[in-house]
Structures are given as C-alpha cells and as structure tokens.
C-alpha cells in the first residue's frame, strides 16, 4: 500500500506564530508522506505541534502565523496557493474533522444546512439531490432517522452524534484524505471506539488516506499503518507503526510507551516522563528533549540531532538511540 | 422562535411594569416642588382660581382616590389635557410619535449601515492601520456631545452648502428621508460608534471560533464564511446591545429634535418640562416606558429567531 505514489507529501513544514514580538516556532521542519488509503498516526503531548501541523496542511494557520515549506497534494504545491484556489481543495480533496464536537458546529445553523453547504461548494448537485446526499451521509455515519434530523440544530444532538455529524460533513464531498484532529478526545470512552471504528471503516471503504492526530498510543497501535512522534514542534521518530511501537528508538517514544499503564497492580504509582516539555519561547539549543532525557550526553545539549533515516521508511532524531535490549528492559 | 403563548405572556408581564411606572410618575409629579395649580394658572392667580383648578384636577381628593382616578383615566386612554397645547395629551402624543419613531428607525438603520461594514474591515485587519483609523474616528465620535455634532452638520451641510433643509419634517416619504437625514446621522454617529466597538470585538471572537475554522476547512467561499457563519453569530450580542441602548437613543432624540426643530415627542418632552405641563410630562413618560418595553420584547424575539438555543417559552 505504502509503496504507491504518495498523495500528500509534506516537506520541511515550519509554522511560526508571533505573540507580543516573540516568535513561537510551533512546527519545525516536519516532513512526511501519506499514500492512498494509508493511515498515519501523529502522536505527541499537548502543544507538540500536531494540530498546528494539520491546520498548516490545509492553510488554516496562515492567517495566524507564518508558514513555510512545501505541502504537495497530488504533486501540486498548495502551501503558498491563494485562498481562492485552495478552497476548492479544502473539503473536496482534503477534509478535516476537529477535536471538539461541541464547538465545531455552528450553533445557529441546522445540521442539514451545514451539510448541504459543503455539497453546494463542491458539487453540481441541485437542491433536492444535495438533500438526498445529506440524508444518505447522516445515515451512513449511523444517525438514526436521518431525514427527520436535517432540520435540527447541533444542540439537539449528543456529543457522539455531533462528532458523527462532523464526519458526515467532512466526507460528504468524497475527499481522498481526511485530517482527523483528536476526533475522540472529547468523547466518552464507550463512544470513542465507535467513532474510531466509523472513521476507519469509512476510510477503508472510500480508500481514503487519514492523518490521525492523537496522544493515545493504543489507538495508534490498533488503527495506523505509519506513526510519527512529535516533540516540541519536530518529528523525533517515524516509521512503520509496528516497528515504532515494538522497537522504539527515541527515548521520548520509549517514555510515551511506558506512560501507558499495562498490567500495573492497583494503587501503584504510574510512570510519567520526568519534567515538562520546553516552552516554545525558550527552546534549548540542542535536542529539545535532552533536559528530560536519561541517556543524554553533552553533545545532545549542544547540537540538535537531525532526523536521520535508520532503515527503509524509518527515521529517528537522536544521537543515542535506544537499542532493542534497552527498549525491552524499559 | 417564540410561540404566540410566549408573546402573550410577555405582554401580560408588561402590566405590572406599567403599574409600577404609573406609581412612579404619579408620585414624582405630586412630590415635585411647587403647586401644579400655580403652574397652570400662574403666580398671580387668585386663591379662588387656584381652588377651582385644584377642584377641577381633583387635587383636593385623598391621594389614593387621585391615584385611582389617574389609573382608570389612563386605562381609558384619557391622559388629561395638555396645559401648553390646550389639547388632549393622547392626541398630542399620537400626533408627534410617528416622527420620533421614524427618526429612531432611520438612525438605527444608518448606524447599522455605517457600523456593520466598518466593524468587518476593522476586525479583519485587526491591529493594522485600517483598524486603528476606524477606531480612532469612532472614538472621536463617541466623545463629542450629540448636540455639538448636530450643530456642526447643520452649519456646514444645511446652512452653508444647502444640501439639506435646516429644519422641518417634509410630507412624502422621500422628502422625509431628505429632511430627517441630518438629525438621523447625528443620532447615528453616536449609536454607530457603540455598535462598531461591540460588533468588531464580537467578529474577532467569532473569527477564531472552531466552527468558523471548520467552515473554512469545508472549503466554503469567504463570502459564506463571513456572511453566514461569522456575521450571524456576531450579531447576537450586538442586537442585545442595540435593544438595551434604546433608552439612550430616545434621550438622544430629545436633543436632536430640538437642535433640528423636528416636531417629535423628544422636543415635545423638552417643551413640556420647560412649561411644567404635568399632564403632558406624565403622558410622555408613560409613552417612553411603553416604547422601551416593546423594543425589549422585539429584541428578545429577534434574538430567538437568530439563535435556536434561545427557545422562548
């Protein structure tokens, strides 16, 4: 699957916000590919730049900050494309769903309106056909009595149902890539699995690529083909999901893996990665993770390790990568 | 949307409000220094004349009886006779009221036309030069008294350039639009400054909302993102503000109507106060109370049409 020509190629993507005269490098030199029907998991703590990466791909970050690098969609660079042209790619080729179903739907417009306006923007369907398609989509994402709910407003839906509505809106125009920004974080645990299953089965059915932003490694293990771990705005490790999770090379990935409680006795203290992520205003000169890293050396503090390929499709940014033995011991 | 039931309920709730307003008006007039009889008949009236007037107005009756008469008369549409104009108060008010309502609606429309687009320009260019210019100009507008702006406009546009009439009301609708333009602009400059400030910050807040980001991510054209998703949401708080400032708007017409010699209830109120025309003051105060209540109801109804979460029951 991943051998085919990628549909999305992100290269050296950098997004910088300026707050009060101080430059905040939210995303730095992020590069990755997504192939047709491929699911890429983008993992990291809050504030590591995952959401900003997604928004920068779609050009939503430009009005808030500076975006450089290239984002190639089907070979065409869309990073600097003017809004007028870019809007024909948004929603039609690349769609996005957001984290908060409570705030991501317009409270003043009916669900039907919010669904059909996407169709109106991207298709030639007439009014009746748009309505039929809207009902079909709501039905498809598992909303009962879809036809009768078109005239309802978002506040009349539960959180899980709103997330389904958002998915229906995003997929209405048959996109080839879905950017999913922590789509299950705001939902009940029981609903989370349903929504994930829904996204993945739809992706499979429509052979749609997915970039799934999450901080849940369990989700990545179950659902993704590829994984990229982000820390302080940079990708520190990426590769095939089984390799990254089974044999992590970056100490941060190891730390993340250990933070997932597995077979721990009740009332025992849970593992956490010591320290906190650095502030974007004061990133260390060397490796951003070095101050929290147990295997750091002097060179880690002085220079930043580049993201280097260590195997086919697998790369890590670390001077002292974890070996299999160490990883297993951890 | 609001149900008929809700509107009826709100109208019923106005009854205690008006009762309270009537008590206040009644007491205010009774406890004002000076004798209404003297005010009517003048300082040099004889005791017998004064007594006759008091008898006629029922001022010799016990307070409660007087209040009862005031309430029952008012409910029957009898607000007494204006001392100044020698005509029934109710007729005088109904004669002048349409002018003021026309002026107010005209001013509100102009305010929205001025403030709406400029608020968008300011919000979309936040902290850049267009924003700074717009905000500075409106700040100046806010800090100048209404009558002063009115006088400047009158001097330049009406007296010198003769683009607009100096006073009067006009007969046809188009004539009225022309005649009332300067008074309306005068009132609108102040209200539009308030609306602009509020709408600008509302738009800025809504622009960053997740549903607006989602609307952009859907690939909607800018026109729809701004018009359908941003404006509607930003308008909610602005409509509330506009409704609540109807009192200010009304007192604004008081000054404006006087400056531009517009025959509305605002100028009438000022004349009534100077002439100590108590029946007329009472009638006008009650009229203002009714107008404000109706505007509040309309504001709530409009809001509930805009926002489905505000279902009024």
TrEMBL record, chain A:
Q: Which residues form a coiled coil?
A: none
Q: Where in the cell is it found?
A: Cell inner membrane
NCBIfam families cross-referenced by the UniProt entry: oligo_HPY (TIGR01727)
| One function term, GO molecular function aspect | ATP binding
Query: What name goes with this protein?
Result: Methionine ABC transporter ATP-binding protein
The entry's family comment says:
Belongs to the ABC transporter superfamily.
The signal peptide annotation in the UniProt record is none
Instruction: Spell out the InterPro entries in the cross-references.
Output: AAA+_ATPase, ABC_Ni/Peptide_Import, ABC_transporter-like_ATP-bd, ABC_transporter-like_CS, Oligopep_ABC_C, P-loop_NTPase
Recorded source organism is: Parasedimentitalea denitrificans
Gene3D superfamilies attached to this UniProt entry: P-loop containing nucleotide triphosphate hydrolases
Q: Which residues form the ABC transporter domain?
A: 8-257
UniProtKB/TrEMBL annotation, chain B:
**Protein keywords:** Cell membrane, Membrane, Transmembrane, Transmembrane helix, Transport
List the CDD domains: TM_PBP2
Localization, UniProt = Cell membrane
Annotated membrane topology: Multi-pass membrane protein
* Residue ranges of the TM segments: 12-32, 101-124, 136-157, 177-196, 234-260, 280-302
Lineage: superkingdom: Bacteria
**Limits of the ABC transmembrane type-1 domain:** 97-299
**One Pfam family this chain carries?**
BPD_transp_1
Family the entry assigns = Belongs to the binding-protein-dependent transport system permease family.
Provide the protein name.
ABC transporter permease
